[in-house]
Amino acid sequence: MRSRSVAITEAVARNAADIGVVTRLPHDADVEMHAFGADELIVVVPGRHPLAGRRRVSFAETLDHEHVVPCSGTHLRFQMLGAASRAGRTPRGRVEAASRDASCAMVRAGAGIGILPRASAKACRPPATRLLALDEPWARREPAVGVRLADALSAAARLFLDHLRARADADRPS
């Protein structure tokens, strides 16, 4: 299974896209990667869920509960399936969410628990949910902006890259 981050990186390498915002992954593509901040995955649970009283939870502990599963092809789904496989388990999920907003809405409705980047979960956090730290090394993520050759970008693409990098610098904790 290929993640969207891999597909985006390959599109940039083939010159089918000027810029790609991805989760930094090891890759063989001839693409320059520029740091775009840092994020971590967290667990979003309904307020009355059995895990709601916890501050931290391991991924293995979440596997005892229904998940709102990220859509196929995302790096997050790839990570979750890999972690579940290493634990000898499969995530239980009745619903698949096409977006982070949809994940939050489904968690709020009680369809399951969600795993989301902290930045996204804070932005769409419904009042009836709790955010728990995901106690896994793979929960720390490094978003990156990939370009084939920064010096060869069009003026518009270069301005966009500069804007993304400045935004990442502004969001970085001092």
Automatic annotation (TrEMBL):
Annotated GO CC locations:
cytosol
Q: Which GO terms describe its biological process?
A: regulation of DNA-templated transcription
| Pfam families named among the record's database cross-references | LysR_substrate
Superkingdom of the source species:
Bacteria
Every LysR substrate-binding domain range: 7-168
Q: What is this protein called?
A: Transcriptional regulator, LysR family
Q: What is the lineage of its organism?
A: Bacteria, Pseudomonadati, Pseudomonadota, Betaproteobacteria, Burkholderiales
